[in-house]
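Repro:
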Amino acid sequence: MFDFRLFWKCLMLPILAAAMFGLTLWLPGTAFAGIVGSDHDFADKGWNTTGEVCAVCHVPHDNKGHEYWRNGLLWNHKLSVATYTMYDSNHSDSIDGAVSAQPDGTAKLCLGCHDGTVAIDEFGASPTQTKFLDGGEKIPSFMDGANLDMRGTHPISIVYDEAADGNLSVQTTAMGASGTIADVLDDGKVQCSSCHDVHDQETLDGSLLREQLDGSVLCLVCHTK
């Protein structure tokens, strides 16, 4: 005898599961939700006079002449003018990839807030210069004379060259939900965005990291130790 109730349950369960999965992806603050509700959503901060999510970093039209956009990505935030002591082969003989003399690519955009020398609210047409990062939000560094010393953090602006470094995974290795290692490089270089998804679209737990730290999974994606 045909059991209509059992048939209905079998039909509805996968539909309900798909609907709940889609809702989970949409809700702010959950993995893959996007920048709204993430650590980079500053819309409700008192120093953000625009009340916008994106304007702290990007602007569709530069009508105030500051020309931050020359740094790419329709950039709307002031950059740091600090000089950095880079983490390079002078400080670690295991570094085989070429390291830029100073941060470049997307890393210099991140450092516009995270080196602690430029205010977060130094953006757009009406900067107020009241809010500076410190503590865990600031890139770990110490002063080396007049320079910001980057030797206390992972090398950035460094060419990912698995051919020169036998301890690196091939660039086709998967990087979490972000595709492959090649997909998270910036012009072939490791930058801040190689490990962090600044828009929180492809992270696993809302931490902006592309892979988990438990078991050093994030490190072992690239480093074959």
